[in-house]
Amino acid sequence: MTSRKLWRFHGGVHPPFHKEESNQLASEFAGIPAQLVIPMQQHIGEAAEAVVKAGDKVYKGQKIAVADHHGISANIHAPTSGKISAIEERVLPHPSGLPGLCIVLDSDGKDDWGDCKLTPYSDYQNTEVSELLQRIRESGIVGLGGAAFPTAVKVSGSLNKAVSTLIINGAECEPYITCDDRLMRERSAEIIEGIKILQYMIDPQECLIGIEDNKPEAIEAMSKACETEENIEVVTIPTIYPSGGEKQLIKILTGKEVPAGGLPLDIGILGQNVATVYSIYQAVVKGIPLISRLLTVTGNGIQRPQNFEVLNGTPISYLAERAGGYTKMAEYLIMGGPMMGFALRDDHIPVVKASNCTLFVSSTVLNESNSAYPDQPTLPCIRCGKCMDACPLNLLPQQLYWHIRARDFERAESHNLKDCIECGACSYVCPSHIPLVNYYRFAKGEIREQTETQEKARRARQRHEFLEFRKAREKREREEKRAAHKAALQKKKQAAAKARAATNGAAGDASDSKADAIKAAMQRVKAKKQARAQQAKKQTKEQTKPTKDAPGINK
Q1: Which pTM was predicted?
Q2: What is the pLDDT of residues 19-65, one digit of tens each?
Q3: What domain range includes position 470?
Q4: For strand 35-39 and strand 99-107, is the pairing parallel, antiparallel, or unpaired?
Q5: Most CB atoms within 10 A, among 153, 335, 412, 429?
Q6: Are residues 35 and 98 in the same domain?
């Protein structure tokens, strides 16, 4: 652990953190439920596509759904061995409460890997970076800090850029959640090895591990695990919500600010959660894809709050049983923490890769942690400005609220709605109990839908314009072909006419010469006839001429 200059981000709040309720017991393996429900949409981007069908026998670690390679997506693997009983729509762990396509796996209890375990890269430092990146992609790893962004996509974006700082997020600022705390206490050496894999891949100048000061055991364990590493530092940061937000942690540790609408890579920083780094270690060194994770089961509505290693697709009801069952105060079921989590309507919904907490609480405790939950009546906004003071992004929550209520989403966007991280700090401090984050989520969904509609309309317009262009082009080409054919035909006719004319001219000349010869011959014949006639006449005349001695002629 090092002491270094820290910076402060704007806003932030100090809600009751309730960490000690679940971080006292060591984590346990939750076991294998009789049935797992595995959604195809567990990450930001496009849903995975199932490559199995009902009735198939599958082994632990077998790929059962492949990433959509045309967009951002992630593979999904069987968390245990068993039989696929159905591929159907089930309710998803999502604020909308809508159903989505899921693979239903009936486990056989054998937990049999078959031949599905990936080949470990124990000597990863002599392995091509492209191979390691492909291993991360094949393992279906996504960000486990809540965003669930496919890790291979995030890391690949840093390979062609100079990364000055690798930040490992161990802040875990959300109330009640302690799974990262227990992970750092119990598996610190593996986390450090995962960090070294990332360092080998992206070659940062430094690596900073940020941990809030309300986790002294985790700080000690991580510091001891990296004490021989020259460029890995554990940095203790103040406990304030939401210090675990990526942009806020970057500000605290480096003093740098990510530009509005930008990414940490734009300022030479790559951030990863400690659980994500541990999953990278598992995939590369052990050859194990992302099929389970540590998850906190807590709240005053559960008998024995603690952390469990949970298989992907495990029903929440099963986890409640493993934690001793419900108490009489189990009024609300929240996926995530009270600040950024969302309510679920029943406990048959499964956990997914992004799930880090299932919170069972009473309305009293929930209202203590977030003033905007249902038991508090919503009152008119009094324009006190507390939401603005609490916002860690220095936004104007009140203005966003009014624009969204007026459905003026364009104005809301102009006030940087997209930069809102939905941390809930504004809702927490609102004296009117206005669920501001719900408005922002609604607006983002509407804007996204409008954008998709506009994009569809744009593509439809492009297709129509291209169709019209193609029709005009084909018409032009037909006319050009017709004109060319007509011109060629005319040229051919002209050539034929010329050839005929030439032939006729030669024939006429020959005919004239023959006629002249005949005429000359006829004239010669005629001349000869005339000459013969004259000769004959002359002879006749001479024969009939009387002589002076002839008798009988009187003189």
Answers
A1: 0.82
A2: 999 999 999 999 999 999 999 998 888 899 999 999 999 999 999 99
A3: 379-483
A4: antiparallel
A5: 412
A6: yes
